[in-house]
Each structure stands twice: as C-alpha cells, then as structure tokens.
C-alpha cells in the first residue's frame, strides 16, 4: 500500500488506516466478537493499513486491550494512535485534562497496549476546567520521557446541518493555535466524508499549510456510504446510529441518491469497485497529508477499504462527487 507522511516528524503510515472503535464500542454490541476483530487487525497490517486508531474510552479500556493482543505479536508492523481526555461513566462522558491524570492514563494505555511507546497520542477533548496549554504540556512531557512519539488533537465535536458553515471548526483551530505554542501538533483527527465535507472549508487547508497530518474520522458516514444499510432496518439500542439524525428510516431513504452517485462512479472503474472505495478514494484525493481511518471489525471490510488506496478518481469523478446532493438530517 502507498504510504503517507503526516506531521513535521514525518510519521509514515499506510494511506488507509483502521478505526478500531467498532470492535468494542458504539456500534451493534451483539456483533462484537474479539477473535473476529483480532483477525481484522491482522488483516489490516498484512495489507499495509498500519495506522491503528483506538482510545482508552472505547469500551472503556477493552479496545486498547484487544489491540494490545495484536501488538504483542506485531508491534513493528503497526503505527499506534490512542487518545486521552475523556472518562466514561454510567450515563455520561466527562473530560479530564489534569496533567497528573494525563500521565497516569498514558501509563495505563501503554500497559493495555503491551508496548513501551505510543506513536501518536491524541487529546480526545479539552477539559473546560483546565487550560488546554497545561494538558498539552503534560502530553509534551510524555514525548520527552520517550513514552510517546508525537501528539495529535481531535476536533471539537461538530457536525453539518444546523451548524454547517465556514465557522464550523473555528473552536478547533483556536485550540490548535494555542497548543502549537507549547509543542508541535503532528495530526488532527476530525470527521470528513462525502456526506460531511465541512472540514474541507477551513480545517483541512489550515492543517495542510502547517504540515499537519489529517486523520479523516467516519470517512464512510458511519457505514451509510457503503451502500450496505437498508432504510428502516433499525439499529440496536446501544448503536450510536439509533440516535443519529441522518439514520431515521425517512432520512436514510432521502439520502440514497448520495450512495447511488458513488455506485455510478464505482461502475466506471470496474464491476468489483464499491461505493465505499469511491468514498475513501475521494478523501485520499483531498491531499497527501490526509489519511482516512474507516472503522470496522470484519476482515472483509478491511480488505475492501484497503483496496481504495489503489483507486484513482478522475476529474470527472471528483466533479460528480462535488455535485451530489447535500446530506439531510431529521431536523430538516
């Protein structure tokens, strides 16, 4: 697989990463099987999808434990990204950016991941009670201690629709400007997909102009852009899509023209090319500093996603994607 470099430290990763969250968190709990997920991780590494994206809150903790089982055998093959800053309670999630906590959390992640260094340590969310510079300073000390190789920042929660517009990522850019004064940012992780392209307006260019890598989260629109979901089929209660404004039966039906457009483009590239591969290839075309991180827990989808790295969209293809209908949500 093609490799891409992200950040001033020139971190080399496969062009398509692997989002590990669905293996333990947020999607269809009854379908989460550790051994199946472990096979998916190994398949990703075999194909060159070296970036494994996890977080201590996924599970919580169980996702890092799962990834640690793979890393115990194949640490040299993997680029490990994990996150800190969010605590999961019974019915709530809270931020914790206190320096002491950050350092303890890093040590705990290292133990669970069965490694002595984290390649990319990301701040999941800034703590409103702690100046972000203090949190980032503690993370920088972890780099100096040799426990972490580079630092990243996850974008402040933002989604299109009612909050769309050029100012959607202003809060994230303000945070980035502040932490850059303390220690270099190597990567930013934020939602980017055909149906959520808002990051291309300001955040993506901001990162590119400063040599900061961009990890595209939810690049397949929480699975919608694969074309494998049926409107009205429903989701398990613990699945985030059960409460997502674009995943009501009505809105899934209304947004089918987006998938149809991706399928039409895929058809021009061969009968084996899928809408998901077109959606990922579109992200790869946004810049050499961009790495999509599609989440999955199955070998089949890992293989399909990795295949998008070889797909080159034409000028016509990109124009068609740009002309697809805007995604609709239930508030509309």
- The count of strands amounts to 12
DSSP helix fraction:
25-40%
Largest sheet at a glance? 8 strands, parallel
Rounded average pLDDT = 93
Radius of gyration (CA) equals 19 Å
- Share of β-strand residues: 5-15%
Give the oligomer, counting copies of the same chain as homo and different chains as hetero: single chain
- Uncertain segments are 159-163
Q: Strand order within the widest sheet?
A: 3-4-5-8-9-10-11-12
Number of helical stretches of at least 4 residues: 11
Which term fits the overall shape? globular
Structural class assignment: alpha/beta
- In whole angstroms, the N-to-C terminal distance is 41 Å
Order of helices and strands: EEEHEHEEEHEHEHEHEHHHEHH
Give an overview of the whole structure.
This protein has about 325 residues and is of the alpha/beta class. Helix content is about 35%, strand content about 15%. It contains eleven helices and twelve strands. The protein has an eight-stranded parallel beta sheet. Strand 8, helix 4 and strand 9 form a beta-alpha-beta unit. The protein is globular, with a radius of gyration of 19 Å. The termini are far apart. About 0% of the residues have low confidence.
